[in-house]
Amino acid sequence: MLTNDQLLAQIPNCLTGTAFTNLGERYEGKVRDNYTKDGKRIIVVTDRLSAFDKVITLIPFKGQVLNQMAKFWFEKTEDIIGNHVIEFPDPNVVVAKECVAMPVEMVVRGYITGVTSTSIWTHYEKGVRNFCGNELPDGLKKNQKLESPILTPSTKAEKGEHDESVSRQEILDRGVITAEEFDYMADAAMKLYARGVEIAAKQGIILVDTKYEFGKDSDGNIVLIDEIHTPDSSRFWFADEYESRLSSGEEQKKIDKEYLREWLADHGFRGEGEIPAIPDDVKVETARRYIEAYELITGEEFVAEVGDVKSRLQNNLSNYL
Fold first, then answer.
1. Binning pLDDT at 50, 70 and 90, where does residue 159 land?
2. Residue 162: what pLDDT?
């Protein structure tokens, strides 16, 4: 694990974004810069961190962690469903098949938790007992394990807007995808989550909940796109402290970006108003948690690419420029 001083030293080198003019048409997401050309999508994972559907700050090595973590999981799950990956030419880059993104994300939850205004726990606390078509019993505690994992799909919001959690029927009523497409993605999502839970458990980690994005490739096949089981798309807790913390009402020990979400919430920000300035020590702690997540879950040492990310990208993407 890198020292705090090493993490601090990388802050000035964080990858804010890219502007490669020869890579193709550019689209900027919250975290990723996408370039499309000749049936390929070159995805550069930046160090931008989003929370509450807003870009908040930059976290050292975050892009590399996310991309390398996604690589690990794509390889571990390709027997369940095909994915968009062609190659990983740089620690921050994946070259993928160009796909048309499905307008629905599949969110799978094994526990009732969350701090955002749209989270399942927030709704439950307010008395909601049917969440996205799932009937929830009375008497659940925050962070409690659900009897079985549930699917809570969400619409993909425009940039700056909040995603909306919806039921299968609501999605079908809107006519954005067919029942066959929904059920195929739902089945894949539940199998992917089960695989993630199994692998994480071997490392003493709980995969709490996660989201999956799917797209159609040029042959019309639905494949897994974007990312899978990363600290941005998932919550992870430590298994050895789960029961004791649940019993005492303590928050779970986390290794995901919930740490920064909770810091923001404690400082009065939940998605509306001005984003508070993030101190360097909070950035460093967030980076440490991302790297810790990678090492704990993959069982591999994180090999950090220190220094100027942009010049390295320029070199590693030379075949595409």
1. low
2. 66
Are 271 and 116 in contact by the 8 Å Cβ rule? The answer is yes
Instruction: Say what the pLDDT of residue 160 is.
Output: 57
Long-range contacts (CB closer than 8 Å, 24 or more residues apart) made by 18-27: 18/44, 18/46, 18/310, 18/313, 20/317, 20/321, 22/320, 22/321, 23/317, 23/320, 23/321
Specify the 3-state DSSP secondary structure of 212: strand
Q: Are 146 and 111 in contact (CB under 8 A)?
A: yes
The domain containing residue 85 runs over which residues? 4-316
Give the pLDDT band (50/70/90) at residue 116. confident
pLDDT in tens, 6-15: 999 999 999 9
Residue type, 304: A
* Residue 158 domain-assigned (yes or no): yes
228: in domain: yes
Separation between Cα atoms, residue 109 and residue 131, nearest integer Å = 11
Confidence of residue 283 (pLDDT cuts 50, 70, 90): very high
Question: Residue 261: what are its φ and ψ, rounded to 5°?
Answer: -55, -45
Residue 161 has pLDDT above 90, yes or no: no
**Does the residue 87 lie in any domain?**
yes
d(CA 64, CA 305): 8
Give per-residue burial for 33-45: e unless 16+ CB within 10 Å, then b.
Answer: bbbbeeebbbbbb
- Kindly state whether residue 321 falls inside one of the protein's structural domains: no
- How many secondary structure helices (H) and strands (E) does the chain include? 9, 17
Domain count, the chain: 1
Tokens 């809107």 -> residue: 174
Beta strands 130-131 and 154-155, pairing class: unpaired
φ and ψ of 151, to 5 deg: -100, 125
Which whole-number Å values give the CA distances from 109 to 120, 125, 188, 190, in the listed order?
Answer: 9, 17, 14, 10
List the CATH number of the domain containing 200. 3.30.470.20
| One-letter amino acid for residue 218 of the chain | S
Please, are residues 106 and 145 in contact by the beta-carbon 8 Å criterion? no
